[in-house]
């Protein structure tokens, strides 16, 4: 008797193969040219059979498909859509940088995320996005970030009391939860400088986390939206968003009313002026950009720092070299921004962790017209899913890509991979505006934490990655802490 997989394969045996499928390119003049090659295509039966793993673990599934179909292939999904999925560093850079004007963000970001997070740098498109980027970019230059370094160090030192208690108790702790709270307090301090009441921080953290979880579920499983509307989930998310808005607008309005200064990111946003008219942002724009900095600024860093501590704990040679460098450069004092240039191995550890477990594991774009790329056609209105995790583990660019090896970022390391296949913050004009902020945060945190505590993993292996909006450890990452 035929298996379920065989029946589905037979049912869709008439699906056009990559060799017989025709591909057309339409120019602005309406002419049609034939491409000499077509993209390898995953048959629909494979997508249907693999649907459970595709939803649960797309990183693993995309990796398996890439090994069979190559770096770039067409993926047919049950709703009839065709997605061009690529782990090719060259195509990733082409879409994000070389021909970025030809590709826009998909509805998931421009409409789905924007409905809750607003129209900020993450979700905006076109001329409005460019205007906002030009307005805000100067606030993230290195000299402006220097003023935030002391606040980061203060929050790291504040976290030590909690870490000391955990070390004394010997209890296991979920480091993901600890890093989420730490990075949330760092981004809050960087945004608003003065301390927020712990109850307000907890409310914002809970609300932002729940809203992000809802956005992932409804984007990945849109068919359950009616159920979520009936069971009150949409109403709950709306209430959480309203609660966050109340707190954010309260802080913004107080700053605008009093004109007080905080030497923080909110100051930068309030002071920024458009070149064409000299006006500043409205309070709604300030809310949107602030909320997006919250949403994008804490979870990505928290996940990266959690994976980083796990990898350092599992590689004692890496841990020892880190300690030796910290002792040589920093000694017993708190690390300063000026130390980071000399902490080269520390930087390589952060970079290797970002390569191994990139928080932004994939991103998508949609074409604004047909174009030919390497003698193959990318059609008009084509969704292109860029598998950044795949590029970070591509064997043609990285030596032993599954191995954790910070030295690959040295001058004698995997120079081609570092130069061509490393996208921890994206690429091109829409590269993450907070990349320097995040690198500063992660390096300072690694120095401050690793020289004071020994982190002991409780599981034999690292957790399975869970790819939501960012790549987090499934079920958390549990450790014990010991004071050095």
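-> sequence recovered:
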């Amino acid at each position: 008797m035929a298996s379920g997989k065989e029946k589905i394969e037979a049912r869709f045996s008439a699906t056009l193969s990559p060799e017989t499928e025709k591909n057309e390119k339409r120019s602005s003049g309406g002419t049609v040219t034939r491409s000499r090659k077509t993209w390898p295509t995953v048959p629909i039966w494979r997508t249907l059979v693999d649907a459970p793993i595709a939803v649960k673990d797309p990183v693993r599934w995309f990796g398996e498909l890439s090994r069979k179909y190559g770096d770039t292939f067409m993926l047919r999904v049950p709703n009839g859509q065709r997605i061009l999925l690529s782990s090719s560093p060259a195509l990733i850079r082409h879409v994000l940088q070389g021909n970025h004007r030809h590709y826009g963000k998909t509805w998931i970001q421009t409409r789905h995320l924007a409905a809750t997070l607003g129209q900020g740098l993450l979700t905006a498109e076109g001329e409005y996005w460019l205007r906002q980027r030009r307005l805000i970019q100067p606030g993230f230059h290195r000299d402006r970030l220097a003023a935030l370094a002391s606040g980061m160090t203060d929050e790291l030192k504040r976290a030590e009391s909690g870490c000391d208690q955990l070390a004394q108790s010997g209890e296991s702790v979920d480091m993901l939860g600890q890093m989420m709270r730490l990075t949330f307090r760092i981004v809050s301090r960087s945004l608003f400088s003065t301390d927020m009441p712990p109850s307000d921080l907890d409310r914002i953290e809970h609300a932002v986390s729940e809203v992000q979880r809802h956005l992932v579920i409804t984007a990945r499983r849109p068919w359950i939206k009616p159920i979520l509307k009936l069971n009150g989930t949409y109403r709950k998310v709306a209430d959480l968003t309203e609660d966050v808005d109340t707190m954010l607008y309260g802080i913004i309005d107080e700053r605008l009313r009093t004109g007080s200064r905080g030497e923080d990111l909110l100051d930068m946003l309030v002071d920024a002026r458009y070149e064409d008219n000299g006006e500043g942002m409205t309070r709604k724009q300030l809310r949107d950009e602030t909320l997006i900095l919250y949403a994008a600024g804490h979870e990505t860093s928290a996940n990266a720092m959690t994976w980083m501590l796990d990898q350092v704990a599992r590689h004692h040679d890496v841990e020892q070299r880190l300690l030796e460098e910290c002792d040589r450069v920093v000694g017993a004092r708190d690390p300063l921004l000026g130390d980071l240039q000399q902490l080269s191995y520390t930087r390589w550890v952060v970079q290797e962790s970002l390569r191994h477990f990139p928080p932004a594991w994939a991103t998508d774009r949609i074409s604004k017209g047909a174009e030919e790329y390497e003698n193959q056609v990318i059609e008009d209105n084509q969704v292109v899913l860029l598998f950044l995790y795949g590029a970070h583990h591509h064997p043609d660019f990285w030596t032993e890509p599954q191995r954790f090896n910070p030295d690959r970022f040295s001058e004698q390391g995997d120079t081609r991979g570092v130069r061509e296949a490393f996208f921890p913050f994206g690429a091109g004009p829409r590269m993450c505006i907070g990349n320097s902020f995040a690198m500063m945060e992660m390096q300072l945190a690694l120095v401050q934490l690793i020289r004071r505590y020994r982190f002991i993993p409780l599981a034999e292996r690292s957790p399975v990655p869970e790819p939501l909006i960012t790549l987090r450890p499934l079920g958390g990452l549990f450790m014990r802490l010991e004071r050095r």
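DSSP finds 19 helices and 15 strands in the chain.
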